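Hi team,

As requested, here is the filled-out complex form for the beta-D-glucopyranose run. I kept the field names the same as last time so the parser does not choke. Let me know if anything looks off before we queue the next batch.

— J.
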Amino acid sequence: MKFGYFDDQAKEYVITTPDTPLPWINYLGTQDFFSLISNTCGGYSFYKDAKLLRITRYRYNNIPVDSNGKYYYIHDGEDIWNPGTMPSKTPVDSYECHHGIGYSRFLSSKNGLKADLLAFVPVNTSCEINKLTLTNTTDKPKTFSLFSYVEFCLWNAVDDSTNFQRNLSIGEVEIEGSTIYHKTEYRERRKHYSFFSVNCPVDGYDTSRDAFLGHNNGNAFPDAVKKNKAGNSVASGWYPIASHQINLTLSAGESRDLVFVLGYSENPQDQKFIAPNVIRKDGAHKILEQFQTTQQVDAAFAELNAYWSKLLSRYHVESKDENVNRMANIWNQYQCMVTFNMSRSASYYESGTGRGMGFRDSCQDLLGFVHLIPERARERILDIAATQFEDGSAYHQYQPLTKKGNLDIGSGFNDDPLWLIAAVSAYLKETGDFSILNEIVDFDNQKEKAAPLYEHLRRSFEYTSTHLGPHKLPLIGRADWNDCLNLNCFSTEPGEPFQTTGPSEGPVAESVFIAGMFVKYGKEFAQISRHMGDNETAAKAEQEVDAMYQAVLDAGWDGEWFLRAYDAQSQKIGSKECKEGQIFIEPQGFCVMAGIGVKEGLAEKALDSVKEHLDTKYGIMILQPAYTQYYLNLGEISSYPPGYKENAGIFCHNNPWVSIAETVIGRGNRAFEIYKKTCPSYIENISEIHCTEPYVYSQMVAGADAVFHGQAKNSWLTGTAAWTFCNLSQAILGVQPSYDGLCINPCIPEGFGDFKLTRTFRDAVYHIEVKNPDNVQKGVKKVNVDGKEHEGCLIPFEEGKKEYHVTVYMG
Ligand code: BGC
Ligand code: NOJ
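And here is what came back:
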């Protein structure tokens, strides 16, 4: 069943009912000011950091789940209704929510009044615009009143939801014409404030939540709206809000635009001349004057659309498969931008107060983003690397505002260091900008401990190669990519909860997955070293990679598939000898991607085993058989009920690893079959089972052991976005950036047909045509570049050349 449809022309998903299985959300904002917005107008805004600078309040775990947002109430004498239907839930005569790229639009109507609400964050401005167009579709004049409503958050979202003894006394606002300023904390900090304004005179306002809603009332039918009379309340403490009342009469057929702006402003450092406690409003004025008229707003919206069209055009495919085109050209790239911006901080499943930027997460997000805005990827790499410790290990997370490592979580995830090599090598391949390696970057954010980025990579590599266990495999530490595989928490007493904060290096637990990473990214590191002219390091790295390759063959192969790990007692994890958890997905995908076992014929076996033991119609599960009880020597993984999350859920993130691995051995049919199973657009028709948004990936789909097999959770913020984009764009469609140029080597299913692709690469545009006359899955028999025959799949990048016309003949 579907709850809407894709409009590819407009790059939108159009939701046709407010009753989607879960809130289906979108993100507004590209750089600093961000909003989450659901298909019923729920959500919240923040500036840079969803924890530290939260602008509007949102209550996770609310009843109903999604019942706070930027709401507009219309009281037409008969009914009180909202354009997105929440929070009144008054049935409307028509409803559509168009989630587009960086904007959402709500079209609804009731009693002859049409509302068209467009929400977006302009490029380079710290505000969200809500343009509300109201049209009287009857043949008589219509009189009604409109009330806006946002609830302010007192900045630090954790403090806001815990420290009531203080917070209920500190809320302050200021009112200036149609602008309501929220200035809590301004008294001592005088740094920042937010404001909510409308571009017309108002008939009243409210800034106290209690005054607006009425005592003991929810927000569905506020007292002020029912009475049609705002209280002109001025909040002092308690719960500051901003609400405008605007009384309107529209003649038959008449339309009226109202522009609401929710903005954020920071004062310049120099505070001397302002009166204490009075907001210095010039920052707000500067923003507001840009959005006073419909023309200004329309121009800003056009600019946003042009910005996105240009970005998305950097990778554009035309194949005969509309799902592939839609995902590659629109939604998958869009999600990559969102995951790059948010990391794992703010979604409807991530509260914005828990996790900030993840070291491994952001490094992987970058893989799907680097082609869009390489300059921002560069900046991000330097931020991430600055949180690395001198020994090469890393803070697992950092806060986006301060860019400082998160002490509560600390370090000890032994895969983290190698992801830095993955990110930097992707950046180097995309841009050819080797100068980044000479950038001086702090260790642990301390200036006195700085070294060139290249040295950071060397320490990443060395951290792994110097932390090996008895089987010469890398120590897993607290966990590797699989956060829940806590093999060193055996010291926990039975009956006590697992400890994920155990010692950073377990006594002996080892990870075959990290071994696969080490081989894959160790080879990249060696290539980077050669490019830097550091042949000695390169040669040494190659030797260590070879040794690791051998260690995996010697101690990491279980007969039919790769082992997952050894626990702290040197017992096998992910082996046919185990009672449960006999086979895991991660080492199969990663070892084969690294090339391990390909020439030995093991790769095929491992991937066949994945198909035999882990496959379902909704995707590949992370492990089988599921753990049916909690095991002290395994930790959090066995704390989940079977079929959910890391305990045999379909973790979408590593499905593309297996798909890419299939392309390594040339099996295009199977690679594509895997791609399709989790691809949102392909499964749009089962939205009632899948439940999350059909235009983006979710972290997890419940596995075969789960009660709700096929049901997804944790949409949007997942490494799945980047990895499926890498899979589709590089492995399946085969356009692979490399250090010296663009390599084209597709691996497609039979019957996929010819396709065309445009790819911007280092400021040159490549017009690529792939022809497959023999209908093969992999193999290139001829390449033509600018009309001339060309040797091999790699098309070297030539400085200054702006366009390439390439035809690739598979066969
Ligand atoms: C989840 C993981 C997640 C981790 C983050 C665990 O409970 O299962 O998926 O990475 O928390 O801390
Ligand atoms: C989600 C986390 O964000 C990611 O870092 C981790 O690799 C996966 N869960 C698997 O545990």
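Two things worth flagging: The pocket of beta-D-glucopyranose (ligand 1) is lined by residues 483-484, 636, 645-646 (CB under 6 Å). The CA atoms of residues 291 and 297 lie 6 Å apart.

Thanks,
J.
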